[in-house]
Amino acid sequence: MPQNRAATGTPTPARRRENGAGMFGVYGAGHRRGATAAAGAALALAVLTGCGDGDGQNTDKAAKEPAATPSPSASAGALTKAQLTAVALTDGERAGDLSASEYALDGPLADAYTADPAVCQPLVSLAGDVSGHAPAAQVQRKADEPGEMLGVTVDITLRSYAGDEAAEVMASLDRAGRACAGGFTEERAVARAAYEKAEPAPLPGFAAEADEAKAYRFTILDVKGKLKLYEYLTVLRSGTTTLAFRAEILGTKDIGGVPEDVMAAQWKKFRAGRA
Q: For residue 270, how many other CB atoms are within 10 A of its CB?
């Protein structure tokens, strides 16, 4: 693991290769969680920072399917991938001002990221191969405005779990929110991101319809340790299924939360499909 140079503001070639972006985007402003946005972000960052000299190579792409396929008995009570797909937003479906789409590759790069200390992991990624909570099935979508690199991007993940595992996921998220409020480090293949704060964020208006709901606002330092970037995470649980929404934007603007109309569109479709 290379030395963390956030305090010195010295970008490394490895960091730029990781996201195919300049020094600004590595810390969250360059749609760092989207597997398909890196090339466009590099161009935008070149204009914003003059540092967009990345070579466009993603070096930490990992498989996004659960590490192991649970047996039918182990998956009792969990929705199948086909059932999750049926209640997920479809390609081109509108969600408020944004449009839903399937990932061209394997989903967000950050599914492979880990946290230091480990208790903070649920705030970074709830993917089964890094979080310790292996889903029986998962479906991922993103919502953005096609062709708009400077707009909001929302990663949407529906995961089903066997037994009480979905409730355990929410309990782990709650522990992480309390233990990691003062900051933590996001570990990647060739870089680190410094989270300065993790604090509660407002829940969507329909959150009372869910069995559980958690929302967080993250303050992340840029590579020079000067600029503050913002991301939001909202996770809802309905029975054995969790619906996770993570929102970010290219730049230092604080968007104030995951766009509620995006969450509402996905929640409404999920609820209608499970009625």
A: 22
Q: How many CB atoms lie within 10 A of CB 275?
A: 5
Residue 201 has pLDDT above 60, yes or no: yes
Cα 160 → chain centroid: 17
Beta-sheet strand order (sheet of 152-160):
94-95, 98-102, 137-144, 152-160, 241-249, 228-238, 212-221, 192-200, 184-187, 114-116
Distance, CA of 102 to CA of 90 (rounded, Å) = 7
Q: Which residue has the higher pLDDT, 38 or 192?
A: 192
Q: How far apart are CA 154 and CA 175, in angstroms?
A: 24
- Closest C-alpha to 155, from 85, 244, 241: 244
Q: How far apart are CA 215 and CA 274, in angstroms?
A: 23
Q: Specify whether the CB–CB gap between 142 and 158 falls below 8 A.
A: no
What 3-state DSSP class applies to 146?
coil
Tens digits of per-residue pLDDT, 224-244? 788 999 999 999 999 999 999
